[in-house]
């Protein structure tokens, strides 16, 4: 006898009790009335199939052209809905409401970010192993694209220190591969966004993200030490670079070292300026002069990178001589004007490769390996960090951000840019400058264009040590030491994937390090799914009968079913009384779980011990019942347990009553 939960019992969803929605069942609609009046109200029939006299559904024949036409009409109807258009083109949401206050806020923020992005672009191109011009090439066209597709006002698209380092490890300093990598990463990001794969970022946990970011910060800092010391040091990993630095330390250049250290100290001091205020703490209590002074101090502190680059560039011009050059190394020649608009290189000749062999498009793509997946994920991670930091509790559409970043990178690849994303440091500047909409990107992009057209001849004299100081002063604060202590207090096991990711990224290539961290995190998740917690309580029914209540804390799926079966058998043998499995937390199951439940029922039947399921979802009940040849009993009200025991002539022996106390509770 197998009770059918759909007919013999009622499954109550307590959520409907507090709902304000009235749900009525119209039997005339369900069964149809004689006059066909039921067809006028309520549900309508489907035109996708024909119901024959014998009750079978058949699809009416359609011509291929008619089928294609109807599909296109349906897709266009769904695609061009106002809600979908506003979701995929966020500019349609804010542009109709754009006003003068928004324009002023965006202008100030755009210029401020532009003054920040120019020196950062010059510096980050060095991290990518490319000439300084390529950082500027990737800092303007993507900004314009993001205006139309970006959903976050605070994201300034352009080069990023982390993505630049990943680009160097994948492209090995080849501008051709870097530009092609920009195109391919943009395409991957675009496809991930269109297929709604933004959730993949959720698999990069906080500890893994902290370990990765800290390791990258140390690698970037290490890669710039050589420019501070004025020596050469090749390598892609933390260990390789330090080995080269120690080997070439004898070639240290005093002018570069003095200039570099001085620039770092100046930048760290200027970093404190935005927090310095003249006058009372409350802005309303300050005078107009005090507010102007505070604004000037804030502008100086925020534009510290641009100010330092200008000062050092002037110093380079004044100290330059035609015979001896400058006393320190400079970035050198940068082509004047905008880059040509062209397809990224898809072939390398023997003179353009490190190995001296020709490389076809497939060879270039094959050499990029896992970087084509890791760089889009890390780009999304950086971008989402900006969105969440300034969202003020609003939801963030990760898939739309993927589409926006992907389109920006695709556009940048046609003007010889390398992969980029939103940088958190520039995002903070953007927000603090009072940005109102993504239109601020047009002003920062315009400043980059002006610098390429008019100022590149003067960039020749910018010292390498100055750019290295800008990078070091920025990334030193990305080492997330503060998270270790709260993580240790909250859950010590979370330190394991974080530390493993940190060490792996220092020793191995970055894409391998992050994949190892994510893989270890997934193993932790799978282990947790395979070992659910079971609460075991010896309780007494309203009729005075003792029974064993076993409560799993999560769904039963194939990795955990054998573990659950063994524990249930173990506890039931220890307490020879009826067993009730509380299924309130079992919201899902699979075929493997159903087969193991069948085996569990056989185990109980062989030793003539009763087992019942309490509050099992009807859908899961049907799954278990379909494979259970023995008695499978489900009940939904506590008082039904005594009735079920009485139906089966169960009588508790005295030994059973003393076997366990009614108040015992333990967790397995």
UniProtKB/TrEMBL annotation:
The chain crosses the membrane at residues 155-171, 178-201, 257-275, 296-319, 371-391, 442-461, 467-484, 496-527. GO terms for biological process: transmembrane transport. Keywords: Membrane, Transmembrane, Transmembrane helix. Coiled coil: none annotated. Its main location: membrane. It is a multi-pass membrane protein. It comes from the Eukaryota. This is SLC26A/SulP transporter domain-containing protein. The lineage of its organism: Eukaryota, Metazoa, Ecdysozoa, Arthropoda, Hexapoda. It holds the Pfam family Sulfate_transp. The keyword Transmembrane applies. It comes from Stomoxys calcitrans. One of its GO terms (cellular component) is membrane. It is found in: Membrane. InterPro entries: SLC26A/SulP_dom (IPR011547), SLC26A/SulP_fam (IPR001902), STAS_dom_sf (IPR036513).
